Amino acid sequence: MITPVWIVGFSGHRNLPQAQLVADAVRQALEALQARAQKQGGTIEFYSSAACGADTLAAETAHALGIPVHLILPMPEEAFRADFENEDKTFRADDWQRVQALITNARNGKNGGSLRLARGTHLRPECYYDTGMQVLEACDSVLVVWDELPARGLGGTTDVVDQARISQKPLLFISSETGESKNERLEKFALADEPDLLLIQELNGFAQDHFTSGETPIDTIFKRLDASANQTSQAFRSSLVRSIKFHGWAAVIAAFAVILPKDEPWSRWTLFTICLVEFILVTWALFLSRVHKWRHTHQQWLKARFGAELLRGIRSAVSFADPLIPQILRHAPHWRRFALSAGLSAARDVDHGKDWQTLRNEYVKARLLDQQQHFVEKQAKAAAALKRTQRIGTWATWLAPGFVLIALAYKLHHALSGHPKPEPFSIAILTEDILFRFMPIFVPLVAGIASGLRTALDSSRRTHRYDELAQLLKHTANTVGDLKTESSTRRCILATEEVLLDELIEWKLAEEQNGGH
């Protein structure tokens, strides 16, 4: 199952007059936050910079509690080392050794931790501010060791506190002077009714089977969600298409009634039979739509497929994407915790012994080429469906005005000629009724059915969009394979994942608008 994760961001001062008191208070705060997360079936993970003082102390405390520690450096490690020089140019070797140990553990993924470099400038003091804001962006609550004094420079703890208050995130304060604690909005941390937590619980319900031997948890959850999505998709789409066809056949059968004589003994029972068949068809169509509405099949399919496709991208790009900042955050914030929790789980399965070139080649094969083939196959099916419905719809659309015009002229002729005496039933009368009564109803009906099927199958959008994406992935696969630096590769992969995510969002919106009953 996906275990929900809450990120605890940290910021603190470098000078700690009462280090032991602060350490004890940090431990108690982390234990309290962990208890709140565990009450909801989840856990917490720690995210901070690695400056000397409070950052180091808090990260070491989190390690001691078994909490994964994620570090972000404001600048490359070689430049960061200069922060450990005193004003007289003496070097604080002991402090640097402690920080190096934390950095090494994070780089090697010890206990599920990770290491990253802050985005943006690496010039002091702007990089300190950027680092604090990036920690704040990723976290669910903020733990600070703070003296509550005004900021003494850009990028300090006061800046983090100010921005956390603006964003209304839960705050826990530990006095850097006394170790005393207080909080703001802590009651909002790890709530049982959080939409993103309820979403994880629902998706876990779709993937209840036990893990398969030899697979990672994320691989197993992906397969379960994919299987659930395929099952519900087949049930929902087939019933949607059948419902449209049943309504169409009911209308066609009803149209036959207009060409049957009303006074012949045999026609009365025929008309009754036609009406009975029409009733059965529309009732069955209604039953199909109501059953899936009552069972929420459409919503389950959308969630299972959306979750499975998110996991597909997370599994493939985890070596190059930061799981603490899932890309889905900008598109669908209520999916953030699912993507965050899944990404952190997937990151623990990365083989840190592989070089980035090997990981890149695995991404090209498992993600780009596989997804390209998927789009090629889906595009071919969609194009065939689009061609059929367009051909039928085009002919029906062009013929409909002609038949309606003929019917209009026929009825005008009868209106001007008064009320002629009914003629006995004959082939000539039947042919006249088919041309002037039945076809003006039948042909526009066919055009409407073809348009409805085209919408239900999403064939128009898929035909054109999937061809574009297949070409893009083919080009990207060739481009990524020739890149010579890890940073360029990462940028290209993240841009590609953004395009694929846009397609996923576009698909979901289209299905929400067109797929419901």
Notes on the protein architecture:
The protein is of the alpha/beta class and 517 residues long. The chain is 64% helix and 7% strand. The protein is built from 15 helices and seven strands. The chain has a seven-stranded mixed beta sheet, sandwiched between helices. It is elongated, with a radius of gyration of 33 Å. The mean pLDDT is 86.
Mean pLDDT across all amino acids: 86
Q: Counting H and I runs of at least 4 residues, what is the number of helices? A: 15
How many strands appear in the DSSP assignment?
7
Q: What topology, given as strand order, has the largest sheet?
A: 4-3-2-1-5-6-7
Amino-to-carboxy terminus distance: 31 Å
Helix content: 55-70%
- The 3D shape can be described as elongated
Ranges where pLDDT stays below 50 over 5 or more residues in a row are: none
The share of residues in extended strands comes to 5-15%
Largest sheet: 7 strands, mixed
List SSEs in N-to-C order.
EHEHEHHEHEHEEHHHHHHHHH
Structural class by secondary-structure content? alpha/beta
Query: Over all CA atoms, what is the radius of gyration?
Result: 33 Å
Brief sketch in words of this structure:
This protein is α/β, with parallel strands linked by helices and 517 residues long. The chain has helices at 19-39, 54-64, 77-80, 93-107, 126-138, 157-166, 195-206, 217-256, 265-294, 297-317, 336-347, 356-416, 427-456, 459-482, 486-514, and strands at residues 5-12, 43-48, 69-73, 114-117, 141-146, 171-175, 181-184.
